[in-house]
Design brief:
With 113 residues, the protein is mainly alpha-helical. 44% of the residues lie in helices and 0% in strands. The chain contains 4 helices and no strands. One of its GO terms (cellular component) is nucleolus. This is Protein FAM32A.
């Protein structure tokens, strides 16, 4: 094993020459800030580059477009289906389903008695 020499430095030691010093917070100078940081603090919303916002090129393949379209369609149908039934209707349907199931925990009687 390797050990480093010297005594353990503690914060509460009265010895000023050694020990661990407390870190102080640094104040930021506004002139050194980047423009994006300055905008966030000042509340100014700057313009984005015009080339980015004018036109977005869709680089997806036809299959990817079709897949996304079908997912959106399924999600829309699911939302519509969920909105049709009230909570009361859902509970009634669940109870009907459970009543039709066989009771697996019920031990069948075998033999006399």
């Amino acid at each position: 094993m390797s050990f480093t020499g010297g005594k353990l430095k503690l914060k509460h030691d009265n010895d000023v020459s050694g020990g661990v010093k407390k870190k102080k917070k640094k104040k930021r100078d506004k002139s050194l800030m980047t423009p994006s940081e300055g905008r966030d603090q000042d509340g100014e919303g700057g313009e984005t580059a015009p080339a980015e916002s004018k036109q977005e090129i869709d680089v997806r393949t036809e299959a990817e477009k079709k897949h996304d379209e079908m997912l959106a369609k399924r999600e829309e149908e699911l939302i519509r289906k969920m909105a049709e039934k009230s909570h009361k209707d859902k509970i009634k349907e669940m109870n009907d389903y459970l009543s039709k199931l066989s009771e697996h925990y019920d031990i069948p009687r075998v033999g006399p008695g």
